[in-house]
Amino acid sequence: MTNIKKILVANRGEIAIRVMRTAREMGINTVAIFSEADRNALHVRYADEAVLVGPPPSNESYLRMDKVIQAAKLTGADAIHPGYGFLSENEEFARLVEHEGLIFIGPSSESIKLMGNKLAAKAAVSKFNVPLVPGTSEPIENVNEAKIIASEIGYPILIKASAGGGGKGMRIVQQEADFEEQMDRATSEARSAFGDGSVFIEKYITKPRHIEFQVLGDKHGNVVHVFDRECSIQRRHQKVIEEAPSCILTPEKRVAMGEAAVNVAKSCGYYSAGTVEFILDDQLNFYFLEMNTRLQVEHPVTEEITGLDLVQLQILIAAGDEIPFNQKDLKINGHAIEVRVYAEDPANNFLPDIGTLRTYMRPQGLGIRVDDGFEQGMEIPFYYDPMIAKLITHAQNREAAIAKMIRAIQEYEITGIQTTLGFCEFVMHHDAFISGNFDTRFVENYFTPGALQQIPSAEEEKIAAALASLLANGTKTNDNELAIRAGSKWKKARL
Ligand code: MV4
Questions:
Q1: Residue 457 has what pLDDT?
Q2: How do the domains of the chain map onto residue ranges?
Q3: From CA 118, how far away is CA 124, in angstroms rounded?
Q4: Alpha-carbon torsion 60, 66, 70, 71, what sign?
Q5: From the CA of 441, how far away is ligand 1's center (Å)?
Q6: Which of 321, 340, 330 is nearest to 386 (CA)?
Q7: How confident is the model at residue 1 (pLDDT cuts 50, 70, 90)?
Q8: Which of 3.30.470.20, 3.40.20.10, 3.40.50.1370, 3.40.50.300 is the CATH number of 209-450?
Q9: CA torsion sign, 52 to 54 to 55 to 61?
């Protein structure tokens, strides 16, 4: 049982609701914060209490540490959950929260700081026998020395910002002649983006798969991993589809990577939920990339295959409890897939398409979970992330989870704005995805806006069915059943 009675959730949208749901199940009261753009938002309605923290722009509201802490004090909250994004990986915020006598539901500010610096993170994990991509372990000071190291590693190489992460500030160098120019660019980009111009180099893995491990640590030094997630389907470093487990890991590889992930967490005295990112090369060698010291967007797929509530565990750990199970108690049950539904137009280079949800009907049924923060008639505010929802399916195996996802996407009805649902259906039907033979270049390799027209929408199927029946029988039909049967045949013929 926990000493936490009231949690302030320093976030908005689906993740704020996700956290408050678990809090409520645990008998813990909830406080929402909101900006002027979110007065009518669902997370505000869901909470027991809500506090206005400022105008719409994030840096005047959700990112204002002073206002968030003030809201917690005002309402008598004893803990703060940061969700993801916003202040979740801000070591200063974590420190401030604890300094004010509140509990930060997340890792220590020291862990956040250490893992936030990619070179410091590599140095820490290297003492724990975790495989690293060949490269430099210190910031590059001297271009000529760096060139010598680069030619030893072999081109292409990648220049990364030490203060970066999530793909920001990376530069590929194909040949030595380009080295100096790319390094100058990387340094000045890093300096202006992060206020720290330190860069380092790594061998560039050309067709990487992105596989991450969910880890949990407690304040007593126990660490476990709760398996892997495959996150290779992304565009511009933004994930669009995630699944658990990864279909290319053998049980042996999973054990080895899981042990490495646990060691990464141990190297920084980690507690709470965290994610260890690896890349795999085409030989399936794995390398540590970085650790994300927060609950991730895609955490539901792990929850589905383990039956664990990761937010509940975060709260129990923050309150000082030990993790209530051991590594050997854990096992994977079936397969889960998540697609992110963004208010973006895939036919128009995924440009944000902000507007009103004229129709909004969620899919339902066995093995389907929708984590969202909107209702029909609501407007997607332009100030924040354009993610409308996460659609998650869980079934006994990957094939069934894909079939369920296709059914769920077809049932999902959103009008008023363009969404990435059609794009996600395209992926579910693609041979490379179905076979599991894909890497992080999936979208650039296979997706063109024209591909979307190839997937029949439910409406088109009905029209096609009526046409098929007209052609077959020479008569017009109103027989729904016949139309549906003809429709499914027509659909199979197209795939
Ligand atoms: C790499 C890499 C290839 N080689 N490092 C991108 C996000 C950041 N976490 C690190 N990233 C990469 N680091 C080496 N040495 C390729 C990527 C990368 C990537 C990684 C994971 C998921 C998607 C990606 C898309 C492009 C590049």
A1: 61
A2: 6-105, 134-203, 209-450, 457-494
A3: 10
A4: positive
A5: 11
A6: 340
A7: low
A8: 3.30.470.20
A9: negative
Question: Which pLDDT tens digit goes with each residue over 103-125?
Answer: 999 999 999 999 999 999 999 99
pLDDT at 168: 74
pLDDT higher than 70, residue 459 = no
The rounded distance, in Å, linking the Cα atoms of 117 and 163 is 5
213 CA to centre of ligand 1 in angstroms: 16
Higher-confidence residue: 403 or 194? 403
**Cα–Cα distance between 71 and 53 in angstroms, integer?**
8
294 catalytically annotated: yes
User: Is residue 57 predicted with pLDDT exceeding 60?
Assistant: yes
CATH fourth-level superfamily of 134-203: ATP-grasp fold, A domain (3.30.1490.20)
Taking the centre of ligand 1 as the mean of its atom positions, its distance from the CA of residue 262, in whole angstroms, is 21
> What one-letter code names the amino acid at 285?
N
Alpha carbon nearest to ligand 1 atom 2, residue: 205
In CATH terms, the fold of domain 6-105 is: Rossmann fold (3.40.50)
Q: How far apart are CA 426 and CA 429, in angstroms?
A: 5
Closest Cα to residue 107, out of 222, 260, 217, 1?
217
Rg of the chain (C-alpha set)? 24
Prediction pTM value:
0.91
**Whose Cα sits closest to atom 9 in ligand 1?**
166
Amino acid found at 26: M
User: Which residue owns the Cα nearest ligand 1 atom 12?
Assistant: 167
**Which amino acid belongs to residue 331?**
K
SS3 track for 268-324: CCCCEEEEEEEEECCCCCEEEEEEECCCCCCHHHHHHHHCCCHHHHHHHHHCCCCCC
pLDDT of residue 451: 87
pLDDT of 24-37, one tens digit each? 999 999 999 999 99
Mutate to test the pocket of ligand 1, among 149, 170, 207, 211 (most ligand atoms within 8 A of CB): 170
pLDDT at 141: 82
Q: Which residue has the higher pLDDT, 494 or 313?
A: 313
- Say whether pLDDT at 132 is over 70: yes
